[in-house]
Design brief:
1 helix; mainly alpha; 54 residues
Length: 54
């Protein structure tokens, strides 16, 4: 019975570590996407939401 408790505790610990690492990776990717320098457009290229008829 004690071995099952140890295995259960290790499983819970592993799941917690995995969830924590996932959150860290997602936050890092979001930070990189936010702080990335926007791509320069070529001369004459118009943004896709630009509406000349407005």
């Amino acid at each position: 019975m004690t071995a099952l408790y140890v295995l259960y505790a290790l499983l819970v610990l592993a799941l917690g570590v995995g969830a924590g690492l996932t959150v860290i990776v997602i936050e890092e990717l979001r930070w990189e996407a936010r702080s990335r320098v926007p791509r320069r457009k070529t001369y004459g290229e118009v943004h896709h939401r630009h509406a000349a008829h407005r």
